[in-house]
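task queued by scheduler; priority normal; single chain, no ligands, no partner chains; default sampling; output format set to structure tokens
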Amino acid sequence: MNQPLAGYAPAPVTARMENHGNHMAKIAMQTGNDLLARVGSMVAYEGFVQYEPNPPAVRQIAKDWLTGEGAPLMKCSGDGLLYLADYGANVVVINLNGDGISVNATNLLAFDAHLTWGVERVKGLAKFAGQGLWNTKISGQGWVALTSRGKPIVVDCGGGEDETYVDPDALVAWSPNLKVKGKRSFRAQSLIGRGSGEAYQMAFSGQGIVVVQPSEDSTDRLRVRG
């Protein structure tokens, strides 16, 4: 191999799911251990891998999605190596190891198909944002890949009395056992958030983490309505 290109070759497989660089996920595929991935996220694969867009199991759960668009997922199955990416976004690979995570759908790249998952409403926010906020909760023994527009920060809420405040348009994921509430902020309106209406934040407290990206989601996930 040409020496300047040698450093870009994939490293030996050491886990079911891992990073190749900062912007790509590498998944070791095995028959019977399927993967659910964002439609269109496959950039390369080795071996024999098949794809089924919007399989029945996904349609059954995604019908509860508030927007009616459903979760744009495909089932990947087979044997080989699968590489996933999302327009150059940073990729964060997580081994849940029996825990759970609540993920913004636009930041969900892939997860093991055997994990327990579903779409659920985030409690305590409806009065701040019309119908409220919907997220995808995933839990169990397995792997999840998230995307972030830039290198994310992972905040450990620490279980203390202090709350952690996040612009919802910059929110990627959080531990589902955290307590969540909305907060209006009139004085900070010109500093926080880019949506119309009042400035607002999501407040987290308890034991767990919050993943925040250094770029706001352009979909304007929450908007305070008069």
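post-processing summary
- Confidence is low (pLDDT under 50) at residues 66-70, 221-226.
- The CA atoms of residues 1 and 9 lie 9 Å apart.
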